[in-house]
Design goal:
Blueprint lengths: L5 E4 L5 H10 L1 E4 L1 H4 L1 H7 L3 E7 L6 H5 L6 E5 L8 H6 L4 E2 L6 H17 L1 H9 L18 E5 L3 H12 L3 E5 L10 E3 L2 H6 L3 E4 L13 H7 L4 E4 L8 H10 L4 E4 L10 H4 L4 E3 L8 H19 L11
Parallel strand pairs: 1-2, 1-3, 3-4, 4-5, 6-7, 6-9, 7-8, 9-10, 10-11, 11-12
Helix pairs in contact: 1-13, 6-8
The protein binds 2-keto-D-gluconic acid.
2-keto-D-gluconic acid binds next to loops.
């Protein structure tokens, strides 16, 4: 047996990261799911877990890994990891903040423009020959519109920064007003939704935000309002959103994230007033490589006894 440190990958990781990990460690790739017997044999030796933004690392799994020392998440979101359970054991959790801010903000603006100007629908209109029968219906102007941002962390501020170039009137909601943020503060999502044309959701997932965008918030957004979600599917009450879209309670939605990915309800996929993308917020080669490098560097720092680069707070 090699004397390499053993780590468990709990998600399918990009080849760039997998190669780096394999050069340094013995990597057990999702064997806790695919081969429980083999997992039971190696579990006592596993010292690191590598996850991604969607993967689950519940208390139960942490409990099966007595030698666990560190959990490194490939993603800024770590709502799948039971951080409390890890920290109780003295196991630090790391994530990949900052390096994906630009990409997620770019996509948020891209989705906003796509749903406002109906770009995917217009593309389809040309491809299927509908243009031959006359012009397409008019869209909604984006420049100068009122933008509400749910969550004004690093990515929320990157979205606002871009929206300024579109001369948007920007407001936000967060648990409390954020010092140094010059935009109008609303104490909750419902009040914010009532005041804007576009509501962009970029708040962390997890129990604290589950179902935060509910029927009342959507009603407040109103029949001329659009919802954009680049956060987590769980932040939105998905059945309530589908009902609101069907009833015309809101004008449309652009969604990069869903409750049960990669499953997207058929009813949503058939709607014309939505734009749907497959969780690609951070999905550029450049950013995914930077995330992979940071995921690896956190692990390497831990095993070298050096300070972690980007640990998650308790
Ligand atoms: C995923 C994400 O990690 O950063 C996050 O929180 O959701 C994404 O970047 C990515 O899709 C890899 O699974």
């Amino acid at each position: 047996m090699s004397d390499k440190i053993e780590v468990l990958a709990v998600a399918a990781l990009m080849p760039f990261l997998m190669e780096k990990l394999r050069a340094e460690y013995t990597v057990h790739d999702r064997i806790h799911v695919s081969d429980p017997d083999a997992f039971a044999t190696v579990a006592p030796r596993i010292r690191g877990v590598v996850a991604n933004g969607e993967a689950k690392v519940p208390r139960e799994l942490i409990g099966k890994l007595p030698a666990l020392e560190v959990i490194s998440v490939f993603g800024v979101g770590y709502d799948g990891v039971d951080v409390a359970a890890a920290h109780e054991r003295g196991v630090p959790v790391t994530n990949t903040p900052e390096v994906l801010n630009d990409d997620v903000a770019d996509l948020a603006i891209g989705l906003l423009l796509s749903i406002a100007r109906r770009i995917p629908q217009a593309d389809k209109f040309v491809r299927n020959g509908s243009w031959l029968n006359g012009p397409i219906s008019l869209a909604r102007k984006a420049t100068g519109a009122r933008l509400g941002i749910v969550g004004i962390g690093r990515i929320g501020q990157a979205i606002a920064h871009r929206a300024q170039a579109f001369r948007m009137d920007i407001a936000y909601t967060a648990r409390s007003p954020r010092a140094g943020v010059p935009y109008t503060y609303y104490p909750n999502a419902e009040a914010l939704a009532a005041a804007v044309d576009f509501l962009v959701v970029i708040t962390p997932g997890g129990a604290a935000t589950r179902g935060m965008i509910d029927a009342k918030v959507l009603k407040a957004l109103g029949p001329q309002g659009y919802l954009i979600n680049v956060a987590r599917g769980t932040v939105i009450d998905q059945p309530a959103l589908i009902a609101a879209l069907q009833a015309g309670d809101i004008a449309g939605a652009a969604l990069d994230v869903f409750v049960d990915e990669p499953n997207v309800p058929a009813v949503l996929r058939e709607m014309d007033n939505v734009v749907l993308t497959p969780h690609i917020g951070s999905g550029t080669r450049q950013t995914r490589e930077a995330m992979g490098q940071l995921t690896f560097d956190n692990l390497r720092a831990h095993f070298a006894g050096e300070p972690l680069l980007t640990p998650v707070a308790s």
